Amino acid sequence: TGLDALIKSKGKKYVGFATDQGYFSSSDTVNILKAEGGSVTAENSMKWDATEPSRGGFNWNGADALANFATQNGKQIRGHTLLWHAQLPQWVKNINDKATLTTVIQNHAAAVAGRYKGKVYAWDVANEVVGDGGGMRSDSIFTTVFRDWTFLDVAFRAAKAADPGAKLCLNDYNIDFSGAKLNTFVQVVKDLKSRGVPIDCVGTQTHTGIGSNNIANFGNVLNTLASTGTEVQITELDIAAPSTSITSAQLTQQRADYKSVVSACMRTSACTGITLWGVSDRATWITGRRPLLWDENFAKKPAYQGFVDGINS
Ligand code: G3I
């Protein structure tokens, strides 16, 4: 029983949840993680600010807790994330030469991916590198120092050396709909492959909204992502209400939207797994907008049935 068992019975690899140590004191949350999920993603604990707050000074407290939870409960791990312009410590942002930044990326990836070698199904090696307009993101130290995409080559090669068995992904948001950003994202992945850089998967975060027009076209988007020749994963799914009040009509629409998104994955052979960005509406980064499958009191919402219907579609 549970979503993970159901999706596996249909040939997919996992349903997962973002979580972290802070949630483990909630027995309701833990029970759902155990019964419904086959994978966990570290919501915050494997990010650079958490793992390497000072150069060469590592803190494994939260990341180890997440990894131990996964090991003890037989869950896969999605590593999130080795390189991101946000939640990046100031000491990294202060680097202004390419040689130093290259070494720093290599050491970070070696340490973090190396520590969990053999335990991680997939790493988000890099997160959110494409700008919303379809160019290089302008507010990233990696872009401004390198001035080209080759910081990705450095990160992916270092991750490969550290954990050769992990699938290595490029992850981004606002690629769950067609447009310049999706086009650039796909081109970046194809270019990495043509340079011989090891990349195995792409992640579409898929933070979307109830009734969004993007959802109807999501199957086409997954096909576009699959055209990179890599595995496609839905990595941070949530479907938020437009405001903190939610109507019963919106809860019904949310059910339909979850069904549509999940069924698009089921129809796409390259789409291997789906991670929800949290368990219950009680604890989500989109405070109050009820984006998840369980409500504030851990009761299943109509959205849960939508997810099931999507798997069965
Ligand atoms: O840990 C500190 C704590 O010590 C401090 O007292 C508290 C006061 O604000 O802040 C805590 O840090 C917070 C951290 O989550 C851990 O709880 C940060 O303020 C808060 O900004 C941070 O938010 C996270 C956000 O990423 C940061 O960008 C969210 O939990 C997390 O869900 C969110 O996840 C991102 C993905 O990594 C990438 N894609 C988008 C997604 C949603 O924004």
Automatic annotation (TrEMBL):
<dbReference type="GO" id="GO:0045493">
    <property type="term" value="P:xylan catabolic process"/>
</dbReference>
<keyword id="KW-0964">Secreted</keyword>
<feature type="domain" description="GH10">
    <location>
        <begin position="26"/>
        <end position="310"/>
    </location>
</feature>
<dbReference type="GO" id="GO:0005576">
    <property type="term" value="C:extracellular region"/>
</dbReference>
<keyword id="KW-0326">Glycosidase</keyword>
<keyword id="KW-0732">Signal</keyword>
<keyword id="KW-0378">Hydrolase</keyword>
<comment type="similarity">
    <text>Belongs to the glycosyl hydrolase 10 (cellulase F) family.</text>
</comment>
<keyword id="KW-0624">Polysaccharide degradation</keyword>
<dbReference type="GO" id="GO:0030248">
    <property type="term" value="F:cellulose binding"/>
</dbReference>
<comment type="pathway">
    <text>Glycan degradation; xylan degradation.</text>
</comment>
<feature type="active site" description="Nucleophile">
    <location>
        <position position="236"/>
    </location>
</feature>
<keyword id="KW-0119">Carbohydrate metabolism</keyword>
<protein>
    <recommendedName>
        <fullName>Beta-xylanase</fullName>
        <ecNumber>3.2.1.8</ecNumber>
    </recommendedName>
</protein>
<dbReference type="GO" id="GO:0031176">
    <property type="term" value="F:endo-1,4-beta-xylanase activity"/>
</dbReference>
<keyword id="KW-0858">Xylan degradation</keyword>
